[in-house]
Amino acid sequence: MTLRDKILAGERIDFDEALSLYDMDFFELGELADAKRKALHGNKTYFNINRHINPTNKCADICKFCAYSANRKNPNEYTMTHDEIMNIVKDVESRGAKEVHIVSAHNPDTGLEWYLEIFKKIKDAYPHMHVKALTAAEVDFLAREYNKTYDEILDLMVLNGVDSMPGGGAEIFDEKVRDYICKGKVTSDQWLEIHRKWHERGKMSNVTMLFGHVEKREHRIDHMMRIRDLQDKTKGFNAFIPLVYQTENNYLKVTEFMTANEILKTMAISRIVLDNVPNIKAYWVTSTVSLALVAQEFGANDLDGTIEKESINSAAGAKSANGVNLEDFVALIKNSGFTPVERDSVYNEIKEW
Ligand code: V47
């Protein structure tokens, strides 16, 4: 049986087979990923109406790829008050947002309550607003900083109204690459353990992969395999999100962007390898909107959301980080031949646009 036949028959592929897909004809690979995407989602492309909020950029950790945290290259340190955050939520809720995605740096000065109580305030004021908050990297930081176990932090998140966890902080799981790009931060095993524990509480999360820096193709496949293994056990990942590395204002000396070809191949391969993760998100903030639209034909079935404002990826040079207006977003999806379907944060369909 050829690899093509194996994939079309829905059989699981192994590490070497996955790696060899990078050498497959570009359009044949796209066709295989598209067949998988169509079998699961037909012509639908999901999005949600959301707002990213990044409440502080003061960080105790140093990741070489990060341009968001306040440091020598980014002297504009800030920490929002809860009132400031609530004003943002009030504004976006009045304009239809159904999800707030709240991710911060690892600020040792605020106290644990500052991190956690804001979720309760949001939930009390807007019970229907989905709170997607705290990456596993933040959970690990809070546990270390405040002498708590992961279980204790996760329980506090549930208690305060966090609905789901975002996929940030996964970066690349390979230990050598990880040590080079973000030594000292949550380890790969810890990242996966935190998500496992979260899933065991009946909660869902996402998982990212930061690629296009110093990692090699085999590290990406290894990353996907580790996700697939955990997903077999928990079924708790909603979406895989490959984040295209942005090159500016950070300490990782990578100046070349990956080619669009490499980005699309990686998306397509993730759709094929991650046979147990239902959604592949083309996160347009880091891929550009144009490429995210093409990615719909290379396995991606989700374009994240309208976002409005984002600070982490834009600090590193992402040019498309100030949101897309809803009508334009819908028109872009339609004009590229797909059906825009607004979803909630855990992929229940809300409305076909
Ligand atoms: O974890 C940091 C990444 C992530 C850079 O779960 C960079 O739905 C590119 O996780 N170039 C935060 N990326 C964003 C994130 C996310 C985004 C959208 C949706 C979801 C979700 C999660 O941004 C960090 C890090 O991996 N990042 N620096 C950079 N220079």
From TrEMBL:
Using the record for this protein, list the coiled-coil segments as residue ranges, or answer none: none
Chain sites annotated for binding [4Fe-4S] cluster: 59, 63, 66
Q: Which InterPro entries match?
A: Aldolase_TIM, CofH/MnqC-like_C, Elp3/MiaA/NifB-like_rSAM, F420, FO_synthase_su2, MqnE, rSAM, rSAM_sf
Q: Where is the Radical SAM core domain?
A: 45-276
Q: Which cofactor does it need?
A: [4Fe-4S] cluster
**Superkingdom of the source species:** Bacteria
The record's family statement is: Belongs to the radical SAM superfamily. MqnE family.
What protein is this chain from?
Aminodeoxyfutalosine synthase
Organism (species): Sulfurimonas gotlandica (strain DSM 19862 / JCM 16533 / GD1)
Organism lineage string: Bacteria, Pseudomonadati, Campylobacterota, Epsilonproteobacteria, Campylobacterales
Q: Which gene encodes it?
A: mqnE
